[in-house]
Amino acid sequence: MPLKIRQDHNRFREIVRGRIKDNLKKYIQKGEMIGKRGKDTISIPLPTIDIPHFSFGHQEQGGVGQGEGEPGTVLGPGQVEPGQGQAGEGEGEHQLEVDLSLDELAAILGEELSLPHIEPKGQKQIENYKVRYTGINTTGPESLRHFKRTYKQALRRQISSGTYDPSNPVIIPTKADRRYRTWKLTPQPESAAVIVYMMDVSGSMGDEQKEIVRVESFWIDTWLRSQYKGLESRYIIHDAVAREVDRETFFHTRESGGTMISSAYRLCHEIMDADYDHSNWNIYPFHFSDGDNWSADDTRTCVEILKNDLLPRVNQFAYGQVESPYGSGQFIKDLREAFDGSERVALSEIADKDAIYGSIKDFLGKGK
User: How far is CA 302 from the centre of its chain?
Assistant: First the structure.
């Protein structure tokens, strides 16, 4: 890419990045953006920005460059009120969508919310490997052929054999001239993390509350994936009993029973015991509920499980209370009383989608 074009492209990307930062709160509140997520990128609509381009009009319109102009003449097409005017064949205005990598999106999120970077603990037991080119060999796959070394070898052979003609410097490598890069795999231990999502799916948690959880979990995932090379997610739903499910079931299940939160915390503890040694894994349990629990006795059981089994082994436990017309909202009050000042507990009240922005800061602002 020529230098000038590269500079213009980088300048445009900075404009796009700035516009996304300015509107980040709006993007966080809108869940439809998540549906445009690819494997490593996400499409973000920018209705007030367009890629620079030439626009050609019809000659009969007149204006600058098409005859004499008059003082006060508008330099551009006239404005037509929406819904007025006749049908035409011209191209309409389209909203620009830009593809942004999830790493870029996480960086913007971190800058805008002033999120501290996380210092991971432990090493993942399964290592990734990095390819390192270590030398040259006479055999290998064609994809690794070293052109410069092959050319030099052919030139050296033709000079030594007297077949090189300076007036007609044609170099034709033979099979024996070919040289190939050699490589080896170098183990790269990586810190890894697991998020254990837990959600109350009893009758008091409606579709609106689950949509808030879905949107917030996307941003939590995006940030934590930028901090860890390996990130796993597990999903637990509960009413009076808890069970582990896949992501699709997690966000689309609705039950009608009562609520016993301790069942989810017990299952979370079992999953950690079975699969995630806390000396090697960075563990993040996130629990979402409307604040109703079966009884005060079960709330005391929850506090005991957190104190004895979960908090000593996790980076941070986060509880988000989603406001519901049917929920009492008592559980977060009990957690505040039990864990006041604890650095490993993050609590957040989420009244509606507008509150997601601040809730992300509540959860991720400690840098744990």
Answer: 31
Amino acid in position 105: L
pLDDT tens readout for residues 188-208: 556 688 999 999 998 778 888
Instruction: Give me the residue label for tokens 């439809």.
Output: 32
Alpha helices in 228-353, H assignment, sequence order: 247-252, 262-275, 296-305, 331-338
| Contact by Cβ (8 Å): 302, 261 | yes
Contact 359, 320 (CB under 8 A): yes
Give which of 340, 342, 281, 291 is closest to 320, Cα–Cα.
Answer: 291
Region 283-297: mean pLDDT is 93
**Chain-centre distance of CA 208, in angstroms?**
23
Name the strands in the sheet holding 317-322, side by side, starting at the edge strand that comes first in the sequence: 242-245, 230-238, 192-200, 281-289, 317-322, 345-350
The helix or strand, by DSSP H or E, that contains position 232, with its residue range, turns out to be strand 230-238
Where exactly are the structural domains of the chain? 1-51+95-114, 128-187, 192-364
Residue 91 DSSP class: P
CA–CA separation, 258 and 250 (whole Å)? 17
The reported pLDDT for the residue numbered 84 is 55
Please provide the DSSP assignment of 335-364 as one string.
Answer: HHHHSTT-TTEEEEEE-SGGGHHHHHHHHH
Instruction: Determine which helix (DSSP H) or strand (DSSP E) holds 98, and give its type and residue range.
Output: strand 96-101
Please check the confidence at residue 236 and state whether its pLDDT lies above 50: yes
Whole-number pLDDT of residue 80? 47
C-alpha–C-alpha distance, residues 84 and 160, integer Å: 83
pLDDT tens digits for 343-352?
A: 999 999 999 9
- Percent of the chain at pLDDT exceeding 70: 72
The CATH number for 192-364, chosen from 1.10.510.10, 1.10.10.10, 3.40.50.410, 3.40.30.20, is 3.40.50.410
